[in-house]
Write a structure and sequence with these properties.
The chain has about 375 residues and is an alpha/beta fold. About 45% of the residues lie in helices and about 15% in strands. The chain is built from 15 helices and nine strands. A six-stranded mixed beta sheet has the order 6-5-4-7-8-9. A three-stranded antiparallel beta sheet has the order 1-3-2, with no helix packed on it.
Length: about 375
């Protein structure tokens, strides 16, 4: 919220100058409501302002017009980075289109106030659209949206303890020191709990030709996870395994995707899942990379290698990793997934959980559940 509260106060003043009755308490309520949400999300800003700043139904068309001009109709030399960030996020997500209600000034409201709800519903349908059915423009918007996704890293409990007011174990050492200082009983009871630590994550992404509709969006998910947790390693494979962690470690997602594409030489080629996983297991044992990690394999299971190699590699991977997660776009929206490809049938006994990743909604749900896998 830092830096955005002044912008929202300016928006309230803009509405007041346009003729709407807005008090200081309304503006403060507006800022407080946005602070509880995401100050860069255009939908959160719109509905927070509409709920707190609009007192009369007749003022909704005017509110829509001023919202459009304040946050979207920006001059070319606009230098306010806050407005540019909000507008770019709206363009990336394509979740909001303020109605054009030039004829709907106060006193002439019709059905325009309900159109925003229809657009929100359309956005929800859009999130369920499979990547394979999207246009290049829609895929580009998806990648920008995924690049801003909040991916909470999972945690594990170590054997070390730290002081915590809600701990369940008494801190006997600290209480003993306090007793010696006071020459009597400790004045307060202190507790400890096991110290949490970020759990490593490894993405192994299939970039073969059969995954062309999904690989770049899944790579964008891995990029977002890397931005949130430095203990994220990213590999790509087609016919061979390539580590691209350093390539995607860039502030700009466009630069990260470009460098990753330049480093992977077998993009949109064949698939050898077993050989690639065997190479990863061999390398991880050498540098102790995947031990205790959550390994996420993103592939459709169409393997051109030997099934015996895949079975042995998956067995070794399951012993090495904390959990083995498989993201297969062919799962779709099915609750119970029955593998049909030979690669998935061979790997299925060694997989802890299968996710889809075929549309934005499934990736969003996976990102939310990732933090609970520690």
């Amino acid at each position: 919220m830092a830096g955005f509260d002044e912008l929202f106060v300016e928006f309230g003043q803009d509405l007041r100058q346009a003729g709407m009755i807005i008090g200081t308490d309304d503006v403060l309520t507006f800022c407080s409501s946005v602070a509880l949400l995401d100050p860069t999300d255009i939908m959160d800003i719109y509905w927070s302002g509409r709920a707190t700043l609009v007192r009369k139904r007749d003022h909704i068309p005017l509110y829509n017009i001023r919202f459009q001009k304040f946050f979207f109709d920006l001059p070319e030399d606009e230098g306010d980075p806050r407005k540019l960030k909000i507008k770019s996020s709206a363009n990336a997500g394509s979740t909001l289109e303020v109605p054009n209600v030039e004829q709907g000034l106060p006193g002439e409201a019709h059905d325009e106030e309900t159109r925003m709800g229809y657009m929100a519903s359309a956005s929800e349908i859009w999130r369920h659209k499979a990547f394979a059915e999207c246009t290049p423009e829609e895929l580009n918007r998806f990648r920008r949206l995924i690049s801003t996704m909040k991916v909470s890293p999972p945690e594990r409990l170590t054997f070390r303890h730290q002081a915590h007011p809600k701990g369940k174990q008494l801190d006997m050492r600290r209480m003993a020191r306090e007793t010696m200082r006071t020459l009597g009983e400790p004045m307060t009871l202190t507790y400890t709990r096991r110290k949490p630590k970020l759990r490593p994550i490894v993405f192994i992404l299939d970039v073969s030709g059969s995954m062309a509709d999904y690989s770049r969006n899944l790579l964008q998910l891995a990029y977002s996870a890397r931005r949130a947790n430095t203990k994220v390693e990213i590999y790509c494979f087609g016919t061979r395994l390539t580590r691209i962690t350093k390539s995607v470690d860039r502030r700009s997602p466009d630069d990260a995707m470009r460098l990753a594409g330049e480093e992977v030489m077998d993009w949109d080629g064949g698939t050898r899942i077993g050989d690639s996983i065997r190479q990863f297991v061999k390398e991880s044992r050498r540098i102790r990379l995947g031990r205790g990690a959550i390994v996420i394999v993103c592939s459709d299971g169409l393997d051109q290698g030997e099934p015996e190699v895949l079975a042995k590699s998956m067995e070794s991977l399951s012993r090495l990793a904390h959990r083995v997660i498989w993201m297969n776009p062919h799962k779709g929206d099915a609750v119970e997934f029955v593998p049909t490809t030979l690669g998935m049938i061979v790997a299925d006994p060694f997989i802890d959980e299968v996710f889809s990743g075929h549309n934005y909604k499934s990736i969003e749900e996976f990102a939310k559940q990732l933090s609970r896998m520690g």
